[in-house]
């Protein structure tokens, strides 16, 4: 038996040659123990590096939010928002609730750059001023613009507000993580200015609102005039523990497995006595960035439960488009896919022939 060993520096091809004479004169080459050990170490190294890469990616995902802005890993500030705060009022010259007292105020949170949505709402459901004999006004809520050319963007906002006088803006950064701040600012403004108003609806800018159906519901004698909040109510909504989920909430922030019941933030209406009550209790509840769930937490501390709508079809969060005529005649608020669909649905609502008795037809967009 003869052992042949090459130098490791040549390629680490270390083999042990076993010369075993057989009938055909065949030689068999077997790997040496050193080669097997080296290959095993190399495989283990690759596995270790792969695991390390996954850990790094996981940590990066947790430390950066969807806009790639740094968030301290698992820190409390990731889940709470800095409110209450002394934010400066940037724009607030609307005559709503000052020179006139509406029955209903529609508050629309919208991004500073959402000028197309604001113009579309002004031309459609936000244009309705007198509905079933009741005054209705629409106000847009904004924070500060971010990104490039913020000064130019702010100048455009000033110019737009001079034209329409239907925008209020405060000095916090307008972002998804600050929706709770925007909502609390809304409540503060309502308490200060709209004491003689009966109801307020907060509604997102991508929603279609059937204002007559909403006013009809609020005028119904069975609709409460106090301690009333309604919309598409989420009962037994689980607190999500998956850190890869957009709405992740760890146990050190909320220990309970479920949130208190709350209406979805896409559109909810409340009696005007609630804003002041929510603000008073909010000092005892540290606000989380999930705006509608936080309002549910405030309602729970007040001992108030949200009210389900009389029909589940009044609020549609995940509609199958296009909606039928019958659905449009019954709905209060429905999510749209954008400005074009909002215009189409608005035109159909205004058509006196849009009833449940007509044949269903399609619009392509």
Automatic annotation (TrEMBL):
EC number: 2.4.1.-
Keyword Cell cycle: no
Subcellular location per the Swiss-Prot or TrEMBL entry: Golgi apparatus membrane
Key word ATP-binding present: no
GO cellular component: Golgi membrane
Molecular-function annotations in GO: N-acetyl-beta-D-glucosaminide beta-(1,3)-galactosyltransferase activity
Membrane topology, as annotated: Single-pass type II membrane protein
Keywords: Glycoprotein, Glycosyltransferase, Golgi apparatus, Lipid metabolism, Membrane, Signal-anchor, Transferase, Transmembrane, Transmembrane helix
Transmembrane segments: 47-64
Pathway: Protein modification; protein glycosylation
GO biological-process terms attached to the record: lipid metabolic process; protein O-linked glycosylation
InterPro entries for the chain: Glyco_trans_31
Family label: Belongs to the glycosyltransferase 31 family.
Protein name per UniProt: Hexosyltransferase
């Amino acid at each position: 038996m003869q052992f042949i060993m090459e130098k490791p520096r040549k390629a680490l091809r270390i083999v042990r040659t076993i010369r075993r004479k057989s009938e055909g004169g065949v030689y068999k080459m077997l790997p040496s123990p050193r080669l097997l050990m080296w290959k095993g170490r190399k495989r283990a190294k690759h596995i270790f590096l792969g695991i390390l890469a996954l850990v790094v990616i996981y940590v990066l995902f947790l430390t950066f939010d969807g806009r790639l802005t740094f968030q301290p890993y698992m820190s409390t500030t990731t889940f709470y928002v800095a409110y209450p705060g002394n934010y400066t009022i940037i724009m607030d010259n609307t005559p709503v609730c000052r020179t006139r007292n509406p029955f209903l105020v529609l508050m629309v949170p919208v991004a500073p750059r959402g000028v197309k949505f604001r113009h579309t709402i002004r031309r459609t459901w936000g244009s309705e001023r007198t509905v079933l004999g009741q005054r209705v006004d629409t106000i847009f809520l904004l924070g500060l613009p971010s990104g490039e050319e913020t000064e130019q963007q702010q100048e455009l906002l000033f110019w737009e507000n001079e034209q329409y006088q239907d925008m209020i803006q405060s000095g916090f950064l307008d972002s998804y993580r600050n929706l709770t701040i925007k909502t609390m600012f809304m409540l503060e403004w309502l308490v200060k200015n709209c004491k003689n108003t009966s109801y307020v609806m907060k509604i997102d800018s991508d929603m279609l609102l059937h204002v007559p159906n909403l006013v009809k519901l609020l005028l119904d004698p069975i609709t409460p005039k106090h301690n009333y909040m309604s919309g598409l109510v989420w009962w037994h909504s689980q607190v999500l523990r998956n850190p890869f989920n957009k709405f992740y909430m760890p146990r050190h922030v909320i220990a309970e497995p479920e949130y208190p019941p709350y209406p979805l933030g896409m559109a909810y209406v409340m009696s005007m006595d609630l804003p002041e009550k929510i603000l008073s209790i909010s000092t005892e509840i540290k606000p989380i960035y999930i705006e509608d769930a936080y309002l549910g937490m405030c309602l729970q501390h007040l001992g108030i439960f949200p009210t389900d709508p009389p029909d589940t079809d009044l609020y549609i969060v995940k509609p199958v488009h296009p909606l039928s005529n019958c659905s449009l005649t019954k709905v209060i608020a429905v999510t749209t896919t954008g400005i074009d669909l909002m215009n189409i649905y608005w035109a159909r609502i205004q058509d006196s022939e849009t009833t449940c008795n007509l044949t269903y037809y399609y619009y392509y967009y």
